[in-house]
């Protein structure tokens, strides 16, 4: 089965074709970073308008790169939520319209299920069950994954998501959007001894997170110092270490609580090298395993959406019949992962 995946939930236009028979995937991404950079963050209206201009040419491009004709595509998967309403509507309407024209089903998938399943695109995918840490710009979730489609949320952020905290901290340090990669770059020259940031909510039991206090701590530190390049690097490093260690403590706690021996880390912040190294060390010290998607599949992409669509169709074949005839579509800017 060949699935065309469409991702437009935020500021990346992603398309991909996943071939379940061969287990292969090709993907293309058009980033909107340059468009939003002058504003220091994503402008929803600009994001939606840009998806409109970019999506169809990108679909055309990937079809030409992969096969002679769209007749090889068996289904379309598009991100139905959560995300920016206008941006989601572009992917949903294009996905649904192409499916009607080509007489194939279109399935709306949950963006975070896409992130969660992204490691399955690897040549050596992790076995179920596992605990997943999903860290993106909009969500921080610890999820127990019994099998495909069987998810229990163990913990989540009570305020800012991890990626959001990276973005806001970068902004107050005068670093460009997107903040995660900018903080990571700045932190390379940081002195780990200069500042120590708190590890929020690690002293009390539970698996929820809170990152807004960390951002405030960074702001207070920045306000009390001259922001020369070395101080920016030192604050960036202290922040990055605090996020990595806080996430690590909660991951170990979740593995222990669910008696699992495998951790999967996905979402944009999962591309962070310091976080990867820290979790790798921590988890192997506890005789567990950790898997990360390749960095390009940690951040938003069409491949994870194509794969999640394939899983949705596989789990519920009668759905396909209905999707084939149903012209209606809906997007869900807020959508609980456990509700799918
Ligand atoms: O998953 P994603 O691409 O989009 C959402 O679903 O939100 O995640 C984007 C987030 C942004 O907050 C970005 O700053 C962060 O992931 N990010 C990183 C890195 N690359 C992206 N954070 C830390 N280190 C990185 N290397
Ligand atoms: Zn995402």
Helix-strand layout with pairing:
Blueprint: E1 2-7, E2 12-19, E3 24-31, H1 33-36, H2 44-66, E4 75-81, H3 85-102, E5 106-110, H4 111-117, E6 130-135, E7 140-147, E8 150-156, H5 162-172, H6 179-187, H7 212-223, H8 229-258, E9 262-266, H9 273-285, E10 289-291, H10 295-298, H11 302-315, H12 317-325
Helix pairs in contact: 2-3, 4-11, 5-6, 5-7, 5-8, 6-8, 7-8, 8-9, 11-12
The structure holds 5'-O-[(R)-(carboxyoxy)(hydroxy)phosphoryl]adenosine and zinc ion.
What does this structure look like?
The chain has 340 residues and is of the alpha/beta class. 45% of the residues lie in helices and 19% in strands. The protein is globular, with a radius of gyration of 20 Å. The two termini are 22 Å apart. 5'-O-[(R)-(carboxyoxy)(hydroxy)phosphoryl]adenosine binds next to helix 5 and helix 6.
N-to-C span: 22 Å
The rough form would be described as: globular
Which structural category fits the helices and strands? alpha/beta
Helix content: 40-55%
Could you write a compact summary of the structure shown?
This protein has helices at 33-36, 44-66, 85-102, 111-117, 162-172, 179-187, 212-223, 229-258, 273-285, 295-298, 302-315, 317-325, and strands at 2-7, 12-19, 24-31, 75-81, 106-110, 130-135, 140-147, 150-156, 262-266, 289-291. Helix 3 links the parallel strand 4 (75-81) and strand 5 (106-110).
